[in-house]
Amino acid sequence: MSSQEIPEENLPSEQGTAHTAGGGAPARTKLRAGEVADDPFADPGLPAHKPRIQDIDERAAKRSERTVALLFTLSMLSTIGFIASFVAFPVDKIVYVWPLGHVSALNLSLGLTLGVALFCIGAGAVHWARTLMSDVEVADDRHPIEAEPEVRAKVMADFKAGAEESVIGRRKLIRTTMFGALAMVPLSGVVLLRELGPLPEDKLRKTLWAKGKLLINQNTMEPLRPEDVAVGSLTFAMPEGLEEDNHEFNNEIAKAALMIVRIQPADIKDKRELEWSHQGIVAFSKICTHVGCPISLYEQQTHHVLCPCHQSTFDLSDGARVIFGPAGHALPQLRIGVNDEGFLEALNGFEEPVGPSFWERG
User: Fold this and answer.
1) Which helix (H) or strand (E) holds 283?
2) Of 167, 247, 277, 323, which has the fewest beta carbons less than 10 angstroms from its beta carbon?
3) 230-239, 271-280, 353-362: which has the minimum mean pLDDT?
């Protein structure tokens, strides 16, 4: 742009005259044609402030206020639309939208509604700042980096003045709708949390064991009889009806795996353990209460079982209490008996959750 194309009011000599009213750089003497300024790079200062239509016409300010409120309201409606889309459209629903082609109705609706919600908040804030907030530019002198008490007081005063100029206290409609929009947008994230996975509900509190379930030998897949369990032996069992080819087998056996040992009744120290046993046959959860490793090492002389992962040791003759290692709880015991056909059966399910310290997590 040549000097001939620059508006006359933007020339340094003109700007110096205009800036005097704004409190900026000192006024400069208007130069005549052919004269050279003493400092041609002097700060031209700020142009004179021109009031906007909203500053002088309350009806225009009201229109801007309604526009901002409308944008914030659209944001709230879009957030509601986001939640409604999440509930209404199944994941596998495909629709044709020109020019996008075949797209997921759920993804398209979620993207559009969330995008509109965020855009309206931003557009509303920008329009509010451009039309209703103060647009007076204020020049301030440089000051030392350290904050003097006077500076801090001035900052606080400027902040208070800025808050008053933002008219947030006077424009209640904007304030209310803005808070509503900002409060509802996070709901989109809350709704998305639902897709992180199924809720655990009470799945970790229950196993397949229930009253009347037969104890099935995991090696022979046959129901166990008392005479099948010899003193000093270790037998692994699972509940009747659980099949290895079932797709839920791994999930269920990880909770229901059972450890069967036979101890001389006189050697059982825990009274409840003796009551829940059958002729010295006791059934305990095979899942270690530390991190859930399967316990498989049994010492028949001491009746101790050892977890191979972290060496937690349990005493099966004393309620399976922890005698060594990081496990924090005893192994849960299953109350067993014998049915009319002579097979070992559960007399109830586990009375506490099995596995690694589940009760401490909730």
Assistant:
1) strand 281-285
2) 247
3) 353-362
Q: Cα–Cα distance between 288 and 265 in angstroms, integer? A: 24
- Residue 183, both tokens: 């409060």
- Using pLDDT thresholds of 50, 70 and 90, give the confidence band for residue 362: very low
Mean pLDDT rounded to a whole number for the chain: 84
CB 174 within 8 A of CB 69: yes
β partners of residue 346: 336
Supply 139's token pair: 């020049």
Contact 109, 85 (CB under 8 A): yes
Q: Which two tokens stand for residue 310?
A: 């972290």
Answer yes or no: is pLDDT of 43 > 80. no
Question: DSSP secondary-structure letter at 223?
Answer: B
The token pair that represents 115 in the structure block: 């995008």
* Tokens 């192994």 -> residue: 331
Q: Say how far apart CA 230 and CA 207 lie, in whole Å.
A: 26
Locate 1 and state its tokens.
């742009």
| CA separation for the pair 147, 151 (Å, rounded) | 6
Q: Which of 260, 261, 258, 257 is nearest to 301 (CA)?
A: 261
Q: Which two tokens stand for residue 319?
A: 């309620």
Please tell me the least confidently modeled range out of 123-137, 236-250, 348-362.
Answer: 348-362
CA atoms within 13 A on the CB side of 306: 9
pLDDT (tens digit, 9 = 90+) per residue, 48-61? 888 999 999 999 99
> For residue 300, what are its two tokens?
């028949």
Region for residue 223 given its phi and psi (left: phi exceeds 0; alpha: psi -120 to 50; beta: otherwise): beta
Sequential DSSP letters for 93-154 = -EEEETTTEEEEHHHHHHHHHHHHHHHHHHHHHHHHHHHTS-----------SS--HHHHHH
Percent residues over pLDDT 90 in the chain: 49
